[in-house]
Predict the structure of Phosphonate binding protein.
Amino acid sequence: QKPGAQVLAQRDIDVAFHSIFIANTGSGLQQIRDVNGLTALKGKRFTFGSESSTSSRLMPQYFLAKGGVKLADFAGGAPGFSGSH
């Protein structure tokens, strides 16, 4: 996500890529219907999957940024990582 960067290639299956965000039922969070609703995650603890994973780190981080959520917005000032897959 750098100014002046562009996609040169993409797999056809990536066009329909979906990310799912899962929350503990005791978190008080409600279903989020679009990326703008991701601001509800600000101030919450957040954990990505593997730090180097496209599906559990890069794409979710892309959607968070698109929804106006920076990594520093999470509780503790940074997200956690659950490990590799």
Remarks:
- The chain has one domain: 12-81.
